[in-house]
Specification:
- The structure holds two protein chains of two kinds.
- Chain A is mostly beta strands.
- The termini of chain A are far apart.
- In chain B, the strands form two sheets. In chain B, strands 2, 4, 5, 6, 9, 10 and 11 form a seven-stranded mixed β-sheet that branches. Chain B has a four-stranded antiparallel β-sheet with strand order 1-3-8-7, with no helix packed on it.
- Classes of the chains: A mainly beta, B mainly beta.
């Protein structure tokens, strides 16, 4: 059982559709990050959320950190083929220093 | 280059052999992480260095795995008596953060290890 559970694991949608992916845990995190990874490359940071209830927007992407700091969501509006990739959430459990733990990822495919 | 560099990019070895994977972090970054990623899964934490010392090695799966960072820059992940289950992409990341939450991790492209 992973500390961070992501859902769905796979998502295939048409260009222009909206989608939400989730990152859930029973543990409290001091911060959560979202990364995007393309084949053959390392993950690249999209955003870091630190405060419970925080909402951050990055163009068509909206990130939310749960009030209790146990979960997060990523919402993409009007998805484009360029959004295709593996979306990973990662967090540092409280009192775990700098050990950044990743979820299993959501693999998104956006078809033109 | 300015990014994290990992060598080799691809390594094929036979079961039982010894392997070394090298990571050259971004200059000046004090924190260095090693992760292992299997196909279709998220990265699995192995070890974290702050400077020259291993601040957290709780993710190393067993004593066949060892990592060093003798001068606080380049790191080497060493795997003894490799097993087929060690096959994965080994990712290295560095971060400028010296305390508090990790901040942004900058990843290399990984070293793909295949154990036959």
């Amino acid at each position: 059982t992973q500390l961070l559970e992501q859902s769905p694991q796979f998502l295939s949608i048409q260009e222009g559709e909206n989608l939400t992916v989730y990152c859930n845990s029973s543990s409290v995190f001091s911060s959560l990050q979202w990364y995007r990874q393309e084949p053959g490359e390392g993950p690249v940071l999209l955003v870091t959320v630190v405060t419970g209830g925080e909402v951050k927007k990055l163009k068509r992407l909206t990130f939310q950190f749960g009030d209790a700091r146990k979960d997060s969501s990523l919402h993409i509006t009007a998805a484009q083929p360029g959004d295709t990739g593996l979306y990973l959430c990662a967090g540092v459990p409280n009192n775990a220093g700098n050990m950044l733990t990743f979820g299993g990822g959501t693999r998104l495919m956006v078809k033109p | 280059g300015a990014g994290v560099s990992q060598t080799p990019s691809n390594k094929v070895t036979e079961k039982g052999k010894y392997v070394e994977l090298r990571c050259d972090p971004i200059s000046g970054h004090t924190a260095l992480y090693w992760y292992r990623q299997s196909l279709g899964q998220g990265p699995e934490f192995l070890i974290y260095f702050q400077g020259t010392g291993a601040a957290d090695d709780s993710g190393l799966p067993n004593d066949r795995f060892f990592a060093v960072r003798p001068e606080g820059s380049v790191s080497t992940l060493k795997i003894q008596r490799t097993e087929r289950g060690d096959s994965a992409v080994y990712l290295c990341a560095s971060s400028p953060t010296s305390g508090g939450y990790p901040g942004e991790l900058f990843f290399g492209e990984g070293s793909r290890l295949t154990v036959l």
